[in-house]
Amino acid sequence: MYPRAVIFDFFGTLSQSASTTERSRDHAKVAAALGVPTKDYEAALRRSWPDRARGALGDLAGTMRWLARACGVEIDDATCAAACAARIATQRDYVRLRPEAEPTLRALRDRGVPIGVVSDCTQELPAAWDTFPIAPYVDAPVFSVEVGLKKPDPAIFLLVCERLGVEPSDCVYVGDGDSNELPGAEAVGMRALRLVAPDHAGAQVFDPITWTGACLTDLRDVLTLASG
Q: Name one Pfam family in it (predicted).
């Protein structure tokens, strides 16, 4: 049976992974803008990730103020603005779409296959979404920070299906495996496939990836599933 819809993760799947070295370098830039030690800022980031991904800390400015307080300081408006600008700039650096991402999504669209994206993310991704060349091909982008849900919550997978007008059993889900997304997708009835790419080596993950199910090594491999 060919899938009626294909749903993709974003970071590490449609985009290439950022290494822990890159992230540490850029965390230092934001920490400097906040005026806090990098190690304290990184600890606050790790601790707050589930809440940040669900939008529970407010908008970007509110999040920056929360992170500063978690590091023991209160920041003024100018410092907050500088930290927000640094955060946006560093997050932009992480969005390097895979060369095969746009052609794959375009080919799926040409075949009439609906496309969804489910991403655990903070405010920067949805704010920039319309500037990405893949955006016109995605029928249902679902961002955790906007919907208040985070993978592997079944509700976020069911939401993208609802927006696409399909049943979970009709969908293939493709992701790098972080956030326990693959078992989460399987649990609601989707067929889950893990993308395994060279840039995943050394990439930051928030949850250990223990997936032993089906894998693919190139996004274009999904076209063989949707060729009927």
A: Hydrolase
